[in-house]
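Lab notes, practical 5.
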Amino acid sequence: MRSTSLSKQERAIRQKLKDDFGHFSAKCLKIRTKKGDIQPFQLNKAQRYLHERAQEQLKTLGRVRIVILKGRQQGISTYVEGRLYWRTIHTKGVRAFILTHEQGATDNLFEMAQRYHELNNPIIKPHTGASNAKELSFDKLDSGYKVGTAGSKAVGRSATIQYFHGSEVAFWPHAEEHASGVLQAVPKEDGTEVFLESTADGIGNYYHKKVMQALGGDDEYELVFIPWFWEPGYRLPVPEGFALDDDDTEYRDLHGLDNEQMAWRRDKIREFNGDTARFQREYPATVEEAFAASSDQSFIQPDLVLAARKCQAEATGPLIMGVDVARFGDDSTVYTFRQGRVVEAQVKKHSQDTMATAGEIRKLINQRNPAKVFVDVIGVGAGVVDRLKEWFGPKIEGINSAEAALDSEQYRNRRAEMYGELRDWLKDKPCQLPDDDRLQNDLCAVQYKYTSKGQYQLEAKEDLKKRLGRSPDMSDSLALTFAEPVFSADDDDAPPEPTSWMA
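Output from the prediction step:
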Protein backbone atom coordinates (compact mmCIF):
# COMPACT_ATOMS: atom_id res chain seq x y z
CA MET A 1 0.00 0.00 0.00
CA ARG A 2 1.38 3.42 -0.95
CA SER A 3 2.08 5.73 1.97
CA THR A 4 0.02 8.50 0.28
CA SER A 5 -3.12 6.39 0.78
CA LEU A 6 -2.57 6.06 4.51
CA SER A 7 -4.60 8.14 6.91
CA LYS A 8 -2.94 10.33 9.53
CA GLN A 9 -3.83 7.77 12.20
CA GLU A 10 -2.40 4.90 10.16
CA ARG A 11 0.85 6.79 9.60
CA ALA A 12 1.10 7.43 13.35
CA ILE A 13 0.58 3.72 14.05
CA ARG A 14 3.29 2.77 11.57
CA GLN A 15 5.65 5.36 12.98
CA LYS A 16 5.22 4.01 16.51
CA LEU A 17 5.91 0.47 15.27
CA LYS A 18 9.07 1.75 13.58
CA ASP A 19 10.29 3.74 16.59
CA ASP A 20 9.32 1.49 19.52
CA PHE A 21 10.66 -2.06 19.39
CA GLY A 22 8.80 -3.17 22.52
CA HIS A 23 5.54 -2.09 20.93
CA PHE A 24 6.51 -3.64 17.57
CA SER A 25 7.50 -6.99 19.11
CA ALA A 26 4.23 -7.30 21.01
CA LYS A 27 2.08 -6.34 18.01
CA CYS A 28 3.93 -7.91 15.08
CA LEU A 29 6.29 -10.68 16.20
CA LYS A 30 5.42 -14.22 17.22
CA ILE A 31 7.67 -16.63 19.10
CA ARG A 32 7.55 -20.32 19.88
CA THR A 33 7.60 -20.88 23.64
CA LYS A 34 9.47 -23.67 25.42
CA LYS A 35 6.13 -25.53 25.54
CA GLY A 36 5.80 -25.25 21.75
CA ASP A 37 3.03 -22.64 21.70
CA ILE A 38 3.06 -19.66 19.31
CA GLN A 39 2.41 -16.37 21.06
CA PRO A 40 3.19 -12.63 20.79
CA PHE A 41 6.74 -11.63 21.68
CA GLN A 42 6.58 -9.78 25.01
CA LEU A 43 10.02 -8.67 26.26
CA ASN A 44 11.17 -10.22 29.53
CA LYS A 45 13.46 -8.51 32.05
CA ALA A 46 16.73 -9.55 30.39
CA GLN A 47 15.48 -8.55 26.94
CA ARG A 48 14.26 -5.17 28.17
CA TYR A 49 17.61 -4.51 29.85
CA LEU A 50 19.55 -5.43 26.71
CA HIS A 51 17.26 -3.28 24.57
CA GLU A 52 17.74 -0.28 26.85
CA ARG A 53 21.51 -0.68 26.70
CA ALA A 54 21.46 -0.99 22.91
CA GLN A 55 19.26 2.07 22.48
CA GLU A 56 21.42 4.11 24.82
CA GLN A 57 24.57 3.16 22.93
CA LEU A 58 22.88 3.92 19.62
CA LYS A 59 22.01 7.34 20.98
CA THR A 60 25.45 8.16 22.40
CA LEU A 61 27.82 6.33 20.01
CA GLY A 62 25.66 6.38 16.90
CA ARG A 63 26.00 2.61 16.43
CA VAL A 64 25.65 -0.54 18.53
CA ARG A 65 28.64 -2.66 19.57
CA ILE A 66 27.67 -5.04 22.39
CA VAL A 67 29.19 -8.19 23.87
CA ILE A 68 26.62 -10.22 25.82
CA LEU A 69 27.56 -12.72 28.53
CA LYS A 70 24.59 -14.76 29.73
CA GLY A 71 23.32 -18.08 30.97
CA ARG A 72 21.62 -20.68 28.86
CA GLN A 73 18.17 -20.13 27.32
CA GLN A 74 17.44 -16.64 28.56
CA GLY A 75 15.91 -15.33 25.33
CA ILE A 76 18.86 -13.23 24.20
CA SER A 77 19.03 -14.69 20.68
CA THR A 78 15.25 -14.25 20.44
CA TYR A 79 15.67 -10.55 21.20
CA VAL A 80 18.61 -10.00 18.83
CA GLU A 81 16.86 -11.75 15.94
CA GLY A 82 13.69 -9.74 16.58
CA ARG A 83 15.65 -6.50 16.72
CA LEU A 84 17.56 -7.21 13.53
CA TYR A 85 14.32 -8.09 11.71
CA TRP A 86 12.74 -4.86 12.99
CA ARG A 87 15.72 -2.81 11.81
CA THR A 88 15.96 -4.57 8.44
CA ILE A 89 12.32 -4.19 7.38
CA HIS A 90 12.37 -0.48 8.24
CA THR A 91 15.61 0.37 6.38
CA LYS A 92 16.44 0.34 2.69
CA GLY A 93 19.59 -1.25 1.29
CA VAL A 94 20.84 -3.07 4.39
CA ARG A 95 22.02 -6.60 5.10
CA ALA A 96 21.73 -8.58 8.32
CA PHE A 97 24.00 -11.56 8.89
CA ILE A 98 23.74 -14.34 11.49
CA LEU A 99 26.80 -16.45 12.34
CA THR A 100 26.54 -19.37 14.78
CA HIS A 101 28.87 -22.09 16.03
CA GLU A 102 27.15 -25.08 14.44
CA GLN A 103 24.67 -25.88 11.68
CA GLY A 104 21.81 -26.83 14.00
CA ALA A 105 22.00 -23.47 15.76
CA THR A 106 22.15 -21.68 12.40
CA ASP A 107 18.99 -23.44 11.27
CA ASN A 108 17.19 -22.64 14.52
CA LEU A 109 17.98 -18.92 14.44
CA PHE A 110 17.13 -18.54 10.78
CA GLU A 111 13.87 -20.40 11.34
CA MET A 112 13.13 -17.85 14.06
CA ALA A 113 13.74 -14.96 11.63
CA GLN A 114 11.56 -16.62 9.00
CA ARG A 115 8.78 -17.14 11.56
CA TYR A 116 8.93 -13.44 12.46
CA HIS A 117 8.44 -12.63 8.79
CA GLU A 118 5.78 -15.22 7.97
CA LEU A 119 3.57 -14.32 10.95
CA ASN A 120 4.13 -10.56 10.78
CA ASN A 121 1.13 -8.26 10.40
CA PRO A 122 0.38 -8.13 6.64
CA ILE A 123 0.13 -4.35 6.75
CA ILE A 124 3.71 -4.07 8.07
CA LYS A 125 5.22 -7.13 6.41
CA PRO A 126 7.48 -6.18 3.46
CA HIS A 127 7.29 -7.93 0.11
CA THR A 128 9.33 -11.15 0.04
CA GLY A 129 12.00 -11.67 -2.59
CA ALA A 130 14.20 -14.72 -2.07
CA SER A 131 13.35 -17.13 0.75
CA ASN A 132 15.42 -20.27 1.18
CA ALA A 133 17.57 -22.08 3.73
CA LYS A 134 20.27 -19.38 3.78
CA GLU A 135 18.65 -16.16 2.62
CA LEU A 136 15.57 -14.05 3.23
CA SER A 137 15.32 -10.89 1.16
CA PHE A 138 12.87 -8.02 0.83
CA ASP A 139 13.27 -7.05 -2.80
CA LYS A 140 11.37 -3.75 -2.79
CA LEU A 141 13.58 -2.53 0.09
CA ASP A 142 16.75 -4.07 -1.35
CA SER A 143 17.36 -5.43 2.16
CA GLY A 144 17.56 -8.88 3.69
CA TYR A 145 19.08 -11.62 5.81
CA LYS A 146 21.80 -14.18 5.30
CA VAL A 147 23.15 -16.85 7.65
CA GLY A 148 26.36 -18.80 8.05
CA THR A 149 28.06 -21.35 10.28
CA ALA A 150 31.50 -20.73 11.76
CA GLY A 151 33.17 -23.61 9.98
CA SER A 152 34.56 -21.94 6.90
CA LYS A 153 37.07 -19.21 7.65
CA ALA A 154 35.83 -17.21 4.65
CA VAL A 155 32.16 -17.12 5.67
CA GLY A 156 30.63 -13.64 5.41
CA ARG A 157 33.78 -11.96 4.09
CA SER A 158 32.49 -10.94 0.67
CA ALA A 159 29.52 -8.75 1.60
CA THR A 160 29.03 -5.44 3.38
CA ILE A 161 26.92 -6.02 6.51
CA GLN A 162 25.02 -3.42 8.52
CA TYR A 163 23.57 -5.70 11.24
CA PHE A 164 25.49 -8.64 12.65
CA HIS A 165 24.50 -11.30 15.19
CA GLY A 166 27.31 -13.56 16.39
CA SER A 167 25.77 -16.40 18.42
CA GLU A 168 27.67 -18.59 20.93
CA VAL A 169 30.88 -16.84 19.99
CA ALA A 170 32.89 -18.71 22.64
CA PHE A 171 32.31 -21.91 20.66
CA TRP A 172 33.26 -20.61 17.20
CA PRO A 173 36.02 -22.58 15.51
CA HIS A 174 38.49 -20.17 13.92
CA ALA A 175 37.11 -17.33 16.04
CA GLU A 176 40.10 -15.03 15.48
CA GLU A 177 39.83 -15.48 11.71
CA HIS A 178 36.11 -14.67 11.78
CA ALA A 179 36.81 -11.59 13.87
CA SER A 180 39.26 -10.33 11.26
CA GLY A 181 36.92 -11.37 8.43
CA VAL A 182 33.17 -11.15 8.84
CA LEU A 183 33.31 -8.48 11.55
CA GLN A 184 35.44 -6.34 9.28
CA ALA A 185 32.55 -6.47 6.81
CA VAL A 186 30.56 -4.25 9.20
CA PRO A 187 31.54 -0.64 8.49
CA LYS A 188 32.21 1.71 11.38
CA GLU A 189 29.25 3.84 10.39
CA ASP A 190 26.30 5.30 12.25
CA GLY A 191 23.32 2.99 12.42
CA THR A 192 25.29 -0.26 12.15
CA GLU A 193 24.87 -2.87 14.87
CA VAL A 194 26.94 -5.81 16.15
CA PHE A 195 25.82 -8.21 18.87
CA LEU A 196 28.26 -10.89 20.07
CA GLU A 197 26.57 -13.22 22.56
CA SER A 198 27.53 -16.46 24.25
CA THR A 199 27.75 -18.50 27.36
CA ALA A 200 31.32 -18.81 28.61
CA ASP A 201 33.69 -21.58 27.52
CA GLY A 202 36.90 -21.09 29.46
CA ILE A 203 39.45 -18.30 29.38
CA GLY A 204 42.06 -17.14 26.89
CA ASN A 205 39.87 -17.61 23.81
CA TYR A 206 38.61 -14.84 21.52
CA TYR A 207 35.27 -14.45 23.30
CA HIS A 208 36.85 -14.27 26.77
CA LYS A 209 39.28 -11.61 25.59
CA LYS A 210 36.44 -9.67 24.00
CA VAL A 211 34.46 -9.74 27.25
CA MET A 212 37.48 -8.58 29.23
CA GLN A 213 38.16 -5.73 26.80
CA ALA A 214 34.53 -4.63 26.94
CA LEU A 215 34.50 -4.92 30.72
CA GLY A 216 37.55 -2.69 30.94
CA GLY A 217 36.26 -0.13 28.47
CA ASP A 218 39.26 -0.82 26.23
CA ASP A 219 37.34 -0.44 22.95
CA GLU A 220 33.91 0.70 21.73
CA TYR A 221 32.23 -2.58 22.65
CA GLU A 222 30.14 -2.57 25.83
CA LEU A 223 29.56 -5.60 28.01
CA VAL A 224 26.01 -6.59 28.91
CA PHE A 225 25.86 -9.31 31.55
CA ILE A 226 22.63 -11.23 32.16
CA PRO A 227 22.59 -13.25 35.44
CA TRP A 228 20.70 -16.54 35.42
CA PHE A 229 18.18 -15.51 38.06
CA TRP A 230 16.62 -12.86 35.81
CA GLU A 231 14.91 -15.69 33.93
CA PRO A 232 11.42 -16.06 35.51
CA GLY A 233 11.23 -19.74 34.57
CA TYR A 234 14.28 -20.65 36.62
CA ARG A 235 12.47 -21.59 39.83
CA LEU A 236 10.88 -24.72 41.33
CA PRO A 237 8.40 -25.35 44.15
CA VAL A 238 10.27 -25.69 47.42
CA PRO A 239 10.21 -29.40 48.40
CA GLU A 240 9.34 -30.55 51.89
CA GLY A 241 12.36 -30.54 54.16
CA PHE A 242 14.29 -28.17 51.90
CA ALA A 243 17.12 -26.51 53.84
CA LEU A 244 20.09 -24.33 52.92
CA ASP A 245 23.57 -24.73 54.29
CA ASP A 246 25.70 -21.70 55.19
CA ASP A 247 27.18 -21.37 51.69
CA ASP A 248 23.75 -21.59 50.05
CA THR A 249 22.34 -19.02 52.46
CA GLU A 250 25.18 -16.62 51.74
CA TYR A 251 24.69 -17.11 47.98
CA ARG A 252 20.95 -16.49 48.29
CA ASP A 253 21.41 -13.35 50.36
CA LEU A 254 24.18 -11.91 48.18
CA HIS A 255 22.04 -12.11 45.05
CA GLY A 256 18.65 -11.41 46.64
CA LEU A 257 17.12 -14.75 45.66
CA ASP A 258 14.19 -16.68 47.08
CA ASN A 259 13.99 -20.35 47.99
CA GLU A 260 12.17 -21.30 44.76
CA GLN A 261 15.17 -20.04 42.80
CA MET A 262 17.52 -21.84 45.17
CA ALA A 263 15.52 -25.04 44.71
CA TRP A 264 15.92 -24.70 40.93
CA ARG A 265 19.65 -24.07 41.33
CA ARG A 266 20.08 -27.13 43.53
CA ASP A 267 18.13 -29.29 41.09
CA LYS A 268 20.26 -28.07 38.17
CA ILE A 269 23.50 -28.76 40.05
CA ARG A 270 22.17 -32.25 40.74
CA GLU A 271 21.66 -32.69 36.98
CA PHE A 272 25.35 -31.76 36.58
CA ASN A 273 26.30 -34.54 39.04
CA GLY A 274 27.13 -32.02 41.72
CA ASP A 275 29.47 -30.00 39.47
CA THR A 276 28.97 -26.49 40.88
CA ALA A 277 31.68 -25.08 38.61
CA ARG A 278 29.73 -26.19 35.55
CA PHE A 279 26.59 -24.56 36.91
CA GLN A 280 28.49 -21.31 37.41
CA ARG A 281 29.83 -21.45 33.87
CA GLU A 282 26.47 -22.17 32.22
CA TYR A 283 24.32 -20.17 34.67
CA PRO A 284 26.57 -17.44 36.10
CA ALA A 285 25.46 -15.01 38.77
CA THR A 286 28.45 -12.73 38.10
CA VAL A 287 30.91 -12.17 35.27
CA GLU A 288 33.68 -13.64 37.40
CA GLU A 289 31.74 -16.87 37.95
CA ALA A 290 31.42 -17.47 34.22
CA PHE A 291 35.19 -17.49 33.75
CA ALA A 292 36.29 -18.61 37.20
CA ALA A 293 39.26 -20.90 37.54
CA SER A 294 38.84 -23.70 40.03
CA SER A 295 38.59 -22.35 43.56
CA ASP A 296 41.98 -23.74 44.59
CA GLN A 297 43.69 -21.63 41.88
CA SER A 298 42.25 -18.20 42.71
CA PHE A 299 44.22 -16.35 45.39
CA ILE A 300 41.18 -14.24 46.32
CA GLN A 301 37.85 -16.03 46.46
CA PRO A 302 34.84 -14.56 44.62
CA ASP A 303 32.55 -14.70 47.66
CA LEU A 304 34.87 -12.35 49.58
CA VAL A 305 34.78 -9.76 46.80
CA LEU A 306 31.05 -10.04 46.20
CA ALA A 307 30.31 -9.61 49.90
CA ALA A 308 32.45 -6.45 49.99
CA ARG A 309 30.62 -5.09 46.93
CA LYS A 310 27.31 -5.41 48.78
CA CYS A 311 28.58 -4.06 52.11
CA GLN A 312 28.40 -0.55 53.56
CA ALA A 313 31.28 0.25 55.92
CA GLU A 314 32.49 3.37 57.72
CA ALA A 315 35.50 5.22 56.31
CA THR A 316 37.87 6.03 59.16
CA GLY A 317 41.61 6.57 59.50
CA PRO A 318 44.16 7.92 57.02
CA LEU A 319 43.38 8.22 53.33
CA ILE A 320 45.75 6.15 51.18
CA MET A 321 46.25 6.40 47.43
CA GLY A 322 47.56 3.60 45.21
CA VAL A 323 48.72 4.27 41.62
CA ASP A 324 49.40 1.56 39.04
CA VAL A 325 51.14 3.37 36.19
CA ALA A 326 50.50 2.12 32.66
CA ARG A 327 53.61 0.56 31.16
CA PHE A 328 52.40 -0.08 27.63
CA GLY A 329 50.00 1.51 25.15
CA ASP A 330 47.12 -0.90 25.83
CA ASP A 331 47.35 -0.67 29.62
CA SER A 332 45.67 1.95 31.80
CA THR A 333 46.87 4.06 34.70
CA VAL A 334 44.53 3.52 37.66
CA TYR A 335 44.25 5.62 40.83
CA THR A 336 42.63 4.08 43.92
CA PHE A 337 41.72 5.75 47.22
CA ARG A 338 41.18 3.67 50.35
CA GLN A 339 40.26 4.98 53.78
CA GLY A 340 40.27 2.26 56.41
CA ARG A 341 37.52 -0.22 55.59
CA VAL A 342 36.25 1.60 52.49
CA VAL A 343 37.63 1.62 48.94
CA GLU A 344 36.25 4.45 46.84
CA ALA A 345 35.44 4.30 43.15
CA GLN A 346 38.60 4.01 41.06
CA VAL A 347 39.83 6.45 38.41
CA LYS A 348 41.15 4.99 35.16
CA LYS A 349 43.14 6.88 32.51
CA HIS A 350 44.12 5.68 29.03
CA SER A 351 47.07 6.72 26.87
CA GLN A 352 48.75 9.23 29.19
CA ASP A 353 52.46 10.02 29.09
CA THR A 354 54.41 10.09 32.35
CA MET A 355 54.28 13.86 32.76
CA ALA A 356 50.52 13.90 32.23
CA THR A 357 50.21 11.09 34.78
CA ALA A 358 52.35 12.98 37.29
CA GLY A 359 50.25 16.10 36.76
CA GLU A 360 47.01 14.15 37.22
CA ILE A 361 48.28 12.64 40.48
CA ARG A 362 49.42 16.07 41.70
CA LYS A 363 45.95 17.44 41.08
CA LEU A 364 44.32 14.54 42.96
CA ILE A 365 46.74 14.88 45.89
CA ASN A 366 46.00 18.60 46.19
CA GLN A 367 42.27 17.87 46.11
CA ARG A 368 42.20 14.91 48.50
CA ASN A 369 45.36 15.29 50.61
CA PRO A 370 46.04 11.56 51.16
CA ALA A 371 48.38 10.64 54.02
CA LYS A 372 50.45 8.42 51.70
CA VAL A 373 50.69 7.72 47.97
CA PHE A 374 52.12 4.37 46.84
CA VAL A 375 53.22 4.25 43.20
CA ASP A 376 54.43 1.20 41.28
CA VAL A 377 57.96 2.11 40.11
CA ILE A 378 58.49 -0.80 37.71
CA GLY A 379 58.73 0.45 34.13
CA VAL A 380 57.70 4.05 33.53
CA GLY A 381 56.50 4.49 37.11
CA ALA A 382 59.99 5.44 38.29
CA GLY A 383 59.89 8.71 36.36
CA VAL A 384 56.47 9.52 37.81
CA VAL A 385 57.73 8.87 41.36
CA ASP A 386 60.79 11.10 40.88
CA ARG A 387 58.63 13.97 39.72
CA LEU A 388 56.10 13.54 42.53
CA LYS A 389 58.84 13.43 45.17
CA GLU A 390 60.02 16.84 43.99
CA TRP A 391 56.55 18.18 44.77
CA PHE A 392 55.47 16.21 47.84
CA GLY A 393 58.57 14.65 49.39
CA PRO A 394 58.06 11.69 51.76
CA LYS A 395 54.31 11.58 51.12
CA ILE A 396 55.26 9.67 47.95
CA GLU A 397 56.54 6.10 48.19
CA GLY A 398 57.75 4.14 45.19
CA ILE A 399 56.99 0.40 45.40
CA ASN A 400 58.91 -2.24 43.48
CA SER A 401 56.55 -5.21 43.54
CA ALA A 402 59.34 -7.59 42.48
CA GLU A 403 61.44 -6.88 45.57
CA ALA A 404 61.61 -9.20 48.57
CA ALA A 405 58.56 -9.10 50.83
CA LEU A 406 58.71 -7.53 54.27
CA ASP A 407 57.46 -10.91 55.53
CA SER A 408 59.73 -13.05 53.37
CA GLU A 409 58.80 -16.24 55.20
CA GLN A 410 55.21 -16.07 53.99
CA TYR A 411 55.46 -14.24 50.64
CA ARG A 412 57.74 -14.59 47.62
CA ASN A 413 57.83 -10.82 46.89
CA ARG A 414 56.11 -7.52 47.63
CA ARG A 415 53.40 -8.13 45.05
CA ALA A 416 52.30 -11.36 46.72
CA GLU A 417 52.47 -9.63 50.09
CA MET A 418 50.29 -6.70 49.04
CA TYR A 419 47.68 -9.07 47.63
CA GLY A 420 47.92 -11.13 50.81
CA GLU A 421 47.23 -8.06 52.94
CA LEU A 422 44.32 -7.19 50.63
CA ARG A 423 42.91 -10.70 51.01
CA ASP A 424 43.18 -10.50 54.81
CA TRP A 425 41.43 -7.12 54.71
CA LEU A 426 38.55 -8.68 52.75
CA LYS A 427 38.25 -11.51 55.27
CA ASP A 428 38.08 -9.05 58.19
CA LYS A 429 34.51 -7.86 57.60
CA PRO A 430 32.93 -5.37 57.27
CA CYS A 431 34.75 -3.84 54.32
CA GLN A 432 33.47 -2.04 51.26
CA LEU A 433 34.52 -2.24 47.59
CA PRO A 434 33.07 -0.43 44.58
CA ASP A 435 30.28 -2.45 42.97
CA ASP A 436 32.34 -3.07 39.84
CA ASP A 437 32.47 -6.24 37.73
CA ARG A 438 35.84 -5.34 36.22
CA LEU A 439 37.44 -4.94 39.66
CA GLN A 440 36.00 -8.25 40.84
CA ASN A 441 37.27 -10.04 37.76
CA ASP A 442 40.75 -8.55 38.22
CA LEU A 443 40.87 -9.55 41.87
CA CYS A 444 39.64 -13.11 41.38
CA ALA A 445 41.67 -13.80 38.25
CA VAL A 446 45.01 -13.81 40.07
CA GLN A 447 46.22 -17.37 40.59
CA TYR A 448 48.93 -18.58 42.93
CA LYS A 449 51.20 -21.44 43.92
CA TYR A 450 53.67 -22.23 46.70
CA THR A 451 57.43 -21.96 46.34
CA SER A 452 59.76 -24.71 47.57
CA LYS A 453 60.06 -22.66 50.80
CA GLY A 454 56.29 -22.63 51.30
CA GLN A 455 55.88 -18.96 50.30
CA TYR A 456 52.89 -17.60 48.41
CA GLN A 457 53.88 -16.80 44.82
CA LEU A 458 51.40 -15.11 42.50
CA GLU A 459 51.05 -15.75 38.82
CA ALA A 460 53.40 -13.45 36.88
CA LYS A 461 51.66 -10.30 35.70
CA GLU A 462 52.78 -10.96 32.12
CA ASP A 463 51.23 -14.46 32.22
CA LEU A 464 48.03 -13.11 33.76
CA LYS A 465 47.79 -10.42 31.10
CA LYS A 466 48.24 -13.00 28.36
CA ARG A 467 45.54 -15.21 29.88
CA LEU A 468 43.05 -12.38 30.45
CA GLY A 469 43.80 -10.42 27.31
CA ARG A 470 44.46 -7.29 29.40
CA SER A 471 46.39 -6.10 32.43
CA PRO A 472 44.76 -6.32 35.92
CA ASP A 473 45.32 -2.61 36.49
CA MET A 474 42.40 -2.09 38.88
CA SER A 475 43.35 -4.83 41.33
CA ASP A 476 47.05 -3.89 41.18
CA SER A 477 46.20 -0.28 42.02
CA LEU A 478 44.06 -1.40 44.97
CA ALA A 479 46.77 -3.79 46.21
CA LEU A 480 49.24 -0.90 46.33
CA THR A 481 47.20 0.73 49.11
CA PHE A 482 48.32 -2.21 51.27
CA ALA A 483 52.05 -1.77 50.54
CA GLU A 484 52.87 -0.56 54.06
CA PRO A 485 50.90 0.39 57.19
CA VAL A 486 49.94 4.07 57.30
CA PHE A 487 48.99 5.99 60.45
CA SER A 488 47.21 9.28 60.99
CA ALA A 489 49.36 12.24 62.02
CA ASP A 490 47.65 12.41 65.44
CA ASP A 491 48.06 8.70 66.10
CA ASP A 492 51.85 8.52 66.33
CA ASP A 493 51.74 7.07 69.83
CA ALA A 494 48.93 4.61 69.12
CA PRO A 495 49.75 0.99 68.36
CA PRO A 496 49.49 0.21 64.67
CA GLU A 497 46.51 -1.68 63.32
CA PRO A 498 47.69 -5.32 63.17
CA THR A 499 48.31 -6.97 59.83
CA SER A 500 49.41 -10.49 59.10
CA TRP A 501 52.99 -9.65 58.14
CA MET A 502 53.43 -7.16 61.00
CA ALA A 503 52.45 -9.82 63.51
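Observations recorded by the TA: The CA atoms of residues 102 and 126 lie 29 Å apart. Residues 309-491 form a domain with the Nucleotidyltransferase; domain 5 fold (CATH 3.30.420.240).
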